[in-house]
Amino acid sequence: MAFKNIFRNFVNVKSAGDSVILQNKSGTIFDDALNEYSPFGKNNIAIYRMLREAIPVLGAAVNRIRTLIGEYEIDTGNDSLNEIVKSFNNEVKVNDFDKGMDTYLSETIDSALVTGMSFSEIVMNRFDIYSLNTAQTERFGFIKNSDGTKSIGIKSKTGFQLRPLDNYLINYLAFEKWDGNPEGKSLFTGLPFLSQIFIRMQKSWDNFVWRVGDPSFMIYVKGGESQTDAKKVNAIADSIAGQMKQLWMKRRMGMVSDVHGGVPYKGEVVIKAIGVDGTLPDIEVPLNSIIEQIVSKTGLTPPLLGIGQMHGNYQVTKDQNDMIVSDTRTRRKRIENTLIKPITDKLLLSLNRPGIKYTVDWKAINLMDEKSEALARLSNAKAETAEIQNVFMLVDRGVLSESEAKEKFELLGIKMHSEYWQRMQKDYYAKQIQDSIISELD
User: Among the three residues 246, 274, 302, which one is the final residue of a domain in this structure?
Assistant: First the structure.
């Protein structure tokens, strides 16, 4: 099968995200990586990947944003062509073992959010699309051309030199760019410093729990009246210390053990746990403050991140809903222009239908509480019905003419066609008769 796969021809580079991080005994396994963070550095991608693992809320943010972007359909205005495009979107090969545009978009969106950029390749088999391949961001960079423009480059097998690529086969997605620089910015930009404080707070709790649940002990042995040999006293202390060590080893395995020993007359053995008398300051307020800043950076609400209980019975307001919907639509537009349309255009070209007009139809986004939204619609419907009834009452009493009433309806945003006018007029008079009958019966 003759097809071109640029990614596999060049790439044999180990990602920085694949490296093993050894635990720092005095801190956490994330300390060394966070200490290497540079606010304006170009090598922070591995740190952003690590933050996703270190703080589950950040991983939840990426998943929720990806879910909010949702699914789409292509409408070409031709049912048979729509079915062909739909079949392609469901069956197109992605990487080695996956398939479907939903899988492809999920991987590219994930990479763009976490690392700031995603690079993917459209692999052609002569004139047909054979597969869609995604790759790790660390393998790519930008090459400055002689005319001052920039193009995408891929690392050679040595991992140092960037080689230019045939850009029409490459899809590049970035949701956030600064100062005209083509390099995208991660959703986590600005969070490593806050994350480091957050992780330290969690570690302080962990250390405190270990001091209480698995404490260190100090053993003090005092010789009796007839015991003047320091070596023998130390031997007693060593014996008890050895038994204590065996005791805790057995307890960690769920077993029970005792300590026994003897001391001379008026001797004394004191065993004290170290650090159990210390108290940990209340960190709830600063911890919540940091979480709130992290939530603010993601642009989502606490319930979407699974932390709604922090704020009680939290409900999404209309302003918050509109803001999240606006952000999602902006991301959708970028995805359309950089991923969906280039692939769909090449598909239509392979079907000998180049240049055909089509639309990308996304599913509606709504985060408002269903009950609140239903009550709001009911309230609006009642208000509109009351306005219609009031206008017909003014017509019935000769205050407004029919043409004036229709103008009134237009101002209210209600299109009143002749048939609709007659039906609403009948409903009005029927209601008047009904109200009159009920009044007489009362």
Answer: 274
Amino acid at 326: S
Give 70's contacts (C-beta < 8 A, 6+ positions apart): 328, 362, 363, 365
**115, 24: one domain:** yes
Core vs surface per residue 284-318: b (16+ CB within 10 A) or e: eeebeebbeebbebbbbbbbbbebeeeeeeeebee
DSSP annotation string for 325-368: HHHHHHHHHHHIIIIIHHHHHHHHHHTT-TT---EEEEPP---S
List, for residues 399-426, the tens digit of each pLDDT value: 778 777 777 777 766 666 666 667 666 6
Total domain count, the chain: 3
Residue 177: closest CA among 225, 117, 247: 117
Cα–Cα distance measured from residue 425 to residue 38, given in angstroms and rounded to the nearest whole number = 72
> Do 155 and 268 sit in the same domain of this protein?
no
d(CA 282, CA 216): 24
Q: DSSP letter at 22? A: P
Shared-domain flag, residues 98 and 175: yes
Whether residue 372 contacts residue 316, with contact meaning beta carbons closer than 8 Å, is answered with no
Residue type at position 109 = I
Residue 7 vs residue 402, higher pLDDT:
402
Please check whether residues 86 and 175 belong to one and the same domain.
yes
Distance in angstroms (rounded) separating the CA atoms of residues 226 and 222: 12
Tell me how far CA of residue 321 lies from CA of 46, 133, 157, 260, 396, in angstroms. 32, 34, 47, 67, 43
Its domain, for residue 380, covers 370-441
Strands (E), 44-106: 72-75, 93-94, 98-99
Query: Which of 2-6, 155-159, 391-395, 407-411 is least confident?
Result: 2-6
Place of tokens 């009044």: 439
Distance of alpha carbon 107 from the chain centroid: 13
Query: In sequence order, what are the residues at sequence separation of 6 or more whose Cβ sits closer than 8 angstroms to the Cβ of residue 24?
Result: 31, 32
